[in-house]
Structure of Ring-hydroxylating dioxygenase, large terminal subunit:
Amino acid sequence: MTQTMAEGLVDTGHGGLIAQDWNQLTFRVNREAYRSAEVFQAERDRIWNHNWLYLGHETEIPNKNDYKVRTLGGKPLIFVRGGDGVVRAFLNSCPHRGTVVCREEQGNARNFQCFYHAWTFNSSGKLSALPGDDAYAELERFKGTMDLRPVAKLDIHEGFVFVSFDPDVPPLLEHLGEAADVLSMAAEQSASGMTTLPGIQRYGVKGNWKLAVENAMDGYHFAPTHNTFVGYLRETGFPVTDDDQYAHDLGSGHSMLVLTGHNGRLGMIWEPRFGEAEKERTRLNREAMAERLGQERADEIGDASRILFVFPNLLFFDLEALTIRQLEPVAPGRTDVRAWQYVPVDEEPDVRAMRLKTMTSFVGPGGLATPDDIEAYEAVQRGIEASKGDTRGFNDWSDMSRGMERESKGEKGRSIDEGAMRSFWRHWDKSLGKVSDATATEYGSGCE
Ligand code: FES
Ligand SMILES: [Fe+2]
């Protein structure tokens, strides 16, 4: 960066798909990053195959032999609690000839039987039945090599289960860095513990996965895109504001917005639409939290909303309610999304009902925010077709320069700037490196 500033050059990162100019204080992303099949494949190879990926929460499979199937980075997996109570993840692919072994979405099963030749595996992955086994030489040795293939790494932080396909990935806590404590702040919110609810929101978006990351780290769009919601909150007496709200680069591509003026939080920050009964309950809850965790920690957890992004596929929304969201890129212009509600185990039914209603009114697929957001990133994906192949200046580049001047002075990043996006893109660029000469488009006269 220093060299770039001294020489007045544009820093084009590792692969030529970002252009960062510390003289002009501009930051741009080449739109091939959202469109190119080659970039998509390079992401699968270099990011998804070599990072920790969020798989699910251990409370999704509370009982022995509970399982879910799930796809990460295009790989079908079985997420299962074995008969021994241990949480594991296996490639959902038969060691015999590769068939998908478990074709149900979820359930409870002591065994998984492959339908093709009926090889059977127990819920701990062990090959338990092999029809016609007399035709195999050295049978015991052979059987010992044919258990379900586990993922290379699995580790759990506060119930959040992460896996990696790379056996040499650094330890999970090292990867999570400061993001680990943000997840702990969520897990500590109830003395009774926190759990996911069984229902799931699942939807497909016609947009690149990175647009979903940008959108979540983009406080700038909140007031214009969600003006219906902002108007509704103001009408109900909540003073929505963008003041005093910040974006934090947590390192390793993780980032976080800390928000105080966008919404109340059930049990933490009361707002009028929660009703009078909830006001008193919130006061008591905050008192109990301070007693349990100490005033400082209770305030740290309770006083602000947070939107956390853990590179590359986990978004955690600690807003009116708590939502875990997982991104699964399917194609350059297609992303599958799964979302779960994360709630206190021991919560009064009326509070739980209000939590779910409040959540769906905002981040639900029929709420006042998420459909707007999805429309925004689908509109970006459609719009960027217009400048494809246009090599004039920066016509085919997206701009994320907002707040670069503050950043260059080392000032704290505001949530309404684009610093959290820039830190994501810098890490993405570093992880991806050079894709090919074809994707590193030429700059036109605009950056000379
Ligand atoms: S492919 Fe599964 S038993 Fe043959
Ligand atoms: Fe939004």
Residues 94, 96-97, 99, 114, 116-117, 119 surround FE2/S2 (inorganic) cluster (ligand 1) (CB under 6 Å). The first helix runs from residue 2 to 7.
